[in-house]
Design goal:
There is one protein chain. This protein is mostly helical and 188 residues long. The protein has two domains: 45 residues, Arc Repressor Mutant, subunit A; 138 residues, Tetracycline Repressor, domain 2 (Orthogonal Bundle), CATH 1.10.357.10. It is 77% helix and 0% strand. It is built from nine helices and no strands. Helix 1 packs across helix 2, helix 4 packs parallel to helix 7 and helix 5 runs antiparallel to helix 7. The longest helix has 26 residues. 23% of the residues are buried.
Length: 188
């Protein structure tokens, strides 16, 4: 990504996370990126266009990190463990932006529909790994798509809770605990 486009990308992420999509203006983003407004419009025709770029770039980065790290494992449980670690790391590192993105799941604007497509793609990846685990009899034989939603939701909701409370969570401990809960449940 070109330096200017990268500056715009970073400014947009920061502003969308801090003040929200609706309140962020193209003027704010241009100022945050230290570029002229014309330069901003050279790269992006609208705020929606910029938002879609931010989500696409972010999801591409996440997708690449996940594929690089799970490729090293043959065991589906180890793959799920890597995804759990990656998800908690990213939520911890980019917590405000992740919370903002999760608010974009609802609605019918193109940007929201596009974001939901990425979430569904991510859930399909988790579901396919769960299918591999079921095939090896490493997890219960339940619907993989529902288990994938539980897997994703367990981490996301806890991290959102941690942002709303004063309690700080260690993301490495979270990943380990979540894998334990996911694989064995809460029963004694």
């Amino acid at each position: 990504m070109k330096d200017t486009k990268n500056e715009i990308f970073n400014a947009a992420i920061k502003l969308f996370a801090e003040i929200g999509y609706e309140r962020t203006t193209m003027d704010d983003i241009a100022a945050g990126a230290s570029v002229a407004k014309g330069t901003l419009y050279y790269y992006f025709k609208s705020k929606d266009d910029l938002f879609c770029f931010v989500v696409e770039e972010g999801m591409d980065t996440i997708r690449n990190v996940i594929h690089d790290r799970i490729r090293k494992h043959d065991n589906p449980i180890e793959k799920l463990n890597e995804i759990m670690k990656i998800q908690t790391e990213l939520i911890h590192k980019y917590n405000k932006f992740i919370v903002f993105l999760l608010t974009q799941v609802w609605g019918s604007h193109d940007r929201q529909v596009k974001f939901r497509e990425y979430i569904f793609e991510y859930l399909r990846l988790i579901s396919s790994i769960l299918d591999q685990a079921k095939g090896r009899k490493l997890v219960v034989d339940e619907k993989s798509d529902i288990m994938a939603v539980a897997f994703f939701g367990m981490i996301s909701s806890t991290m959102i809770f941690s942002l709303m409370s004063d309690k700080e969570f260690n993301h490495e401990e979270l990943a380990s605990s979540f894998m334990k809960y996911f694989l064995t449940g809460f029963r004694k």
